[in-house]
Amino acid sequence: MTDQQNNGAAADETAPQFSMQRIYVRDLSFEAPKSPQVFRQQWEPQVALDLNTKQKALEGDFHEVVLTLSVTVKNGDEVAFIAEVQQAGIFLIKNLDAASMSHTLGAFCPNILFPYARETLDSLVTRGSFPALMLSPVNFDALYAQEMERMQAAGEAPSLQ
Fold first, then answer.
1. Enclosing domain of residue 91
2. How crowded is residue 55: how many other Cβ atoms within 10 Å of its Cβ?
3. CA dist 63 to 34, 85, 96, 98, 161, Å?
4. Exposed, middle or buried by CB within 10 Å (0-12, 13-18, 19+), for 44?
5. Residue 1 resides in a domain
6. Lowest CB count within 10 Å: 21, 107, 111, 114, which one?
7. What is the CATH number of the domain that holds 34?
C-alpha cells in the first residue's frame, strides 16, 4: 500500500500543473488631445487596435505574461483619443514540454488576460466621456498559430522568453 501511495506522489510531481497566481494592471494610459472640441463634433469613430503579448520567466516555475491593448480612435482625420492598457498575470506552470509551454504562454494565458484588459480599457474610455469600445473577443489560438507559421517560414525558432 505504501508503494502505491509513493508512486502516486511521484506521478503528481511530474504531472503538468497550471495555476493563476495574480492578475494586475502593469501600465495604463489615456490621452484625448482634441478635448473638448471633439465632444462638439459629429461622432464617426474609426478604431485601430494594436495587440501585443510578452512573457518573461520569473523565479522557479513562475512566468509573467503581459497583454498590451493599444487603441487609437480617430474622428475624421483627428485623433479623438489614445488608450493603452498592459494587463499582466503571474502564472505557475510546471512540467510542460517546450511546445506546450510556448502555446500556454502565447495563447492560453492571453486568453485569460483579455477579458480583464477589455474591461479596464472600456472603463478608461468611458471615464474620458467617450462611448465604451466593446472590443470583440480575440482568438489567441489562431493568432498564435499564425505567428508559429510566420516564424517557421522565416526559419526562426519560437522563444519562451
1. 15-153
2. 23
3. 39, 19, 13, 14, 9
4. exposed
5. no
6. 21
7. 3.10.420.10
> Which of 87, 91, 82 lies closest to 130, judged by CA?
82
Cis status of the peptide bond prior to 36, with omega within 30 of 0? yes
Take residue 104 and report the three cell numbers written for it.
Answer: 500556454
Domain tally, the chain: 1
Q: What are 49's strand-pairing partners?
A: 71
* Count of all residues that appear for the chain in the document: 161
**SS3 category, 129:** coil
Strands 62-75 and 78-94: antiparallel
Kindly state whether residue 118 falls inside one of the protein's structural domains: yes
Q: All 3 cell numbers of residue 151?
A: 516564424
The per-residue pLDDT for range 100-114, each reduced to its tens digit, is 999 999 999 999 999
Rounded CA-CA distance 50/61 in Å is 29
- How confident is the model over 34-63, as pLDDT tens digits? 999 999 999 999 999 999 999 999 999 999
Residue ranges, the chain, pLDDT below 70: 1-11, 157-161
41: Cα within 13 Å, side-chain hemisphere: 16
